[in-house]
Write a structure and sequence with these properties.
Blueprint: H1 3-13, H2 21-25, E1 38-40, E2 43-45, E3 51-54, H3 57-60, H4 69-79, H5 93-105, E4 112-116, H6 119-136, E5 144-148, H7 157-160, H8 166-169, E6 180-182, H9 196-214, E7 218-223, E8 227-228, E9 234-235, H10 239-250, E10 254-258, E11 282-285, E12 297-301, H11 303-307, H12 328-343, H13 346-361, E13 370-376, E14 379-384, H14 391-401, E15 404-405, E16 412-415, H15 423-440
Parallel strand pairs: 3-15, 5-6, 5-7, 7-10, 10-11
Antiparallel strand pairs: 1-2, 2-3, 4-12, 8-9, 11-12, 13-14, 14-16
Helix pairs in contact: 4-12, 5-12, 9-10, 13-15, 14-15
């Protein structure tokens, strides 16, 4: 098969996500549709043999690169045992073992795992579970939700309620029951002389004011710990999480940590919220938890929440499901992923790797069009001064021409490479990004 053959067939038959399809189909300034034949490590290869360094882990999921031999082997073994069984009234070894492993990673403070297939579904589950838990406790006024300005938690109707990105939610506004928003602790908002801790405390003070006035109606606050990804990799100090936890406790509001993108080691600890020394009431995981192999999401919660549903009456149970809940293959991929973390001491190994990435990107700090070069663990980003509304598309095309896959969010260029990237590949990624930046800027 050739690149051109697959391109034509895909354009005719596949409706691609998060895409204006006309941009792929129109000549001239169109975005290229990239056909991929295979992957290996950090690299993707098309049918003509051209390669691309996957600098964003294919939407932040392939923690250990493509076609990892250990995950491949685990899935082959699982295929000979069990591919899937319904989780209503049945159970199986991979889902039990995965639940026990994840609970252990929270030191038992989040002792119950509920399964779904994707991040937006995890958000929906956490919101519904919070609302329903309060309802079962007789607190029926607590039906509202609170999120940060610029937040993103998924694109299903419930998840859009706590998403504050107009591009995703404006078209569906009539379908959405909107949540309230409070100030983001985004460190880029610092005034002269302010530190990231100062910004975090200022945002927490705004949260305190809102909760003082409205806590009787609020079921939960949902946050992306440390990095608000889809709003431009907005990074903030852990102090905000510490203060938010105190406020949620004081005003009897659940805290939901959406670690769909920032969990599994991305920020330098396995869970991002660990850097604040807290635990949430709900923890949402997806993306990297299965190593990028199969759709899987998990919501972990406390004994207190679980006990609110434990009753003789079915109507007081949490009646949420989908056909592939707790799929055995997906759970086995997640177990293999956790094995790699444990056996290779990945969190510790990522520390020098993150430093290497910072060193390679360091020259960008002096670039006249770059602002706010920043990094949290294995996530790095910078903002670009450019008035051209097509900057993101231009940069994406130039990056591909330099054999790297990077997809800016507006004028924010970010990096989330697989943890198996080598020092030489870090240098290749950074050099390609700098060249793409210069080529994409208007002359």
């Amino acid at each position: 098969m050739s690149n051109s053959d697959l391109l034509q067939r895909s354009l005719a038959a596949v409706w691609h996500p998060c895409t204006q399809m006309k941009q792929h189909a129109t000549a001239g300034e169109a975005l290229p549709l990239v056909p991929i034949a295979r992957g290996q490590g950090v690299w993707l290869f098309d049918f003509d043999g051209r390669r691309y360094l996957d600098g964003i882990s294919s939407w932040w999921v392939n923690l250990f690169g493509h076609c990892h031999p250990q995950i491949n082997a685990a899935l082959r073994a699982q295929l000979d045992e069990l591919e899937h069984v319904l989780l209503a009234g049945f159970t199986h070894r991979p889902v039990v073992e995965l639940s026990e492993r994840l609970i252990g990673l929270t030191d038992g403070s989040l002792g119950h795992c509920f399964y779904a297939s994707d991040g937006a579904s995890a958000t929906e589950i956490a919101l519904k579970m919070s609302f329903h838990a309060w309802h079962n406790r007789g607190r029926r006024d607590k039906q509202e939700f609170l999120c940060l300005s610029g937040s993103y938690h998924g694109e299903t109707v419930g998840a859009l309620a706590v998403t504050d990105v107009p591009l995703f939610k404006d078209a569906y506004a009539p379908l959405i029951r909107p949540a309230s928003t409070v100030a983001t602790p985004d460190a880029r908002l610092a005034s002269d002389g302010e530190t990231p801790v100062d910004v975090a405390r200022r945002a927490a003070a705004a949260l305190a004011t809102h909760l003082e006035r409205h806590h009787e109606e609020i079921a939960a606050l949902i946050v992306e710990p440390l990095v608000q990804c889809a709003s431009g990799m907005a990074m903030y100090d852990p102090e905000y999480l510490r203060l938010a936890r105190e406020l949620c406790d004081r005003y009897e509001v659940h805290l939901i940590c959406d670690e769909i993108a920032v969990g599994c080691g991305r920020t330098g600890t396995f869970f991002a919220h660990e850097q604040a020394g807290i635990r949430p009431d709900f923890l949402c995981l997806s993306k990297g938890i299965s190593g990028g192999y199969l759709p899987l999401s998990i919501v972990l919660t406390t004994d207190g929440v679980y006990d609110a549903f434990y009753d003789d009456r079915t109507s007081r149970g949490f009646l949420h499901s989908h056909s592939y809940t707790g799929n055995a293959l997906a759970c086995r991929a997640a177990l293999a992923t956790l094995d790699i973390f444990a056996e290779q001491q990945v969190i510790a190994a990522n520390l020098p790797l993150a430093e290497r990435l910072a060193t390679c990107l360091g020259p960008l700090a002096a670039h006249p069009n770059v602002r706010h070069l920043r990094q949290r663990g294995m996530i790095a980003a910078f903002d670009v001064l450019c008035d051209d509304p097509r900057f993101a598309q231009r940069f994406y095309r130039q990056a591909l021409a330099n054999e790297i896959l990077l997809r800016p969010i507006g004028n924010t260029v970010y990096f989330m490479p697989p943890y198996v990237i080598s020092a030489e590949e870090c240098e290749f990624l950074a050099a390609g990004a700098i060249a793409a930046l210069d080529a994409a800027l208007p002359t």
